[in-house]
Amino acid sequence: MNAQPKILGNTSSIDKHNTYRNEDLSISDLVKAVTIGTLGKTDTGIAGSIAYLDQGARLYEAFITDASAGKDEPSASANVISIHKGSLANQMRDSQRLIVVGGGSKKSINNQELSLVREIFSKATKPQLSEIVLIDVSESFLTQQVEAIENISSSLGTNFSIRPIQAEFTSISDKFDGIMTHHFGSKPVRETRSALSMTGFTLTNVERVTSTEHFPSTPIEERMAHLSRFVNIGDTVLFDYSTDLNIDYYDTRSLAAFFNNVPVIMRDKCPNLNGLSTGDDYFRYRPKAFPAARLISHTLAAEAGQNARIENGVTRVFTIAVGDRLVLMYSARPTVSDIEGRPSENTGLESSMHVSSGKTVVHTFRKVGEPSILAL
Question: In sequence order, what are the residues at sequence separation of 6 or more whose Cβ sits closer than 8 angstroms to the Cβ of residue 266?
Fold first, then answer.
């Protein structure tokens, strides 16, 4: 993300907290890389990094609302957390810092991470938690999360130090310590008892899947390893996932609108891109399950042929034929054993407990070492 990305909505609540924005990759460069890889069909499942830009966050929230039949009901993950909040909060009760990765909308963080914060404060006489770090690619979601924490601070009668970071979490895991100490003036990771939470099935949004014949263990281990970098030995990492391979949950008009917005983002934000037509006349959303790999692919099937092009001194043409499928994202649907079976030597994380309701699992881990999969 660049230093001054387009502001979405009211940003006063995050600006006053000295938001850190990842300067390593500009939005235009990011969109260009995703556009070339996706339209060129050389890189699969990489559009998640841009899908929430502009209207994407709003469209995704509309899908979540529709998925709960338009009612003001908690998500499946929020329901599991609500049922088991006592035991989950116990895993992070001594934490001084809470790191929320991909917290989503105000409603999502309220019903998930902040539900655990309320549980901690309801049971502890002097809770240690004083700092909340928010990491999200969407500035719109980041703004909502800050507002939610400001509200809970008031209701609990405490004053959390809020540290917003606009970035994709894997891109900053190796420099998180420097961000906390140099940008925010906070304590380093090694001197802070921390807990990290990533809900909304974010962990299992895997990229660059090389085979749909077997479970993508390496991408999952890499994402777990990145999470372990944010915390110290003995600290807690919590994430959720679904074991449900049924695509009916995804095959909806509201999610189709979310994915059909990805070509719009490409058209509007990829430098020097011309000739890419968007809308239902050109693309249709088609989810597909791969049971052997426990994967669901989110694809756009071309309804009409077209030739998009990037022109910058030279011309790169992307030929899209009727029936071509552009794989935008993958959702892994692991079993509990798929996750527990990831070696702690690779990820730095050792399973401590998991709870579930239906096909939704919330799993906690302890950091036990440094992750080798990112080093070798």
Answer: 31, 34, 35, 38, 39, 50, 273, 276
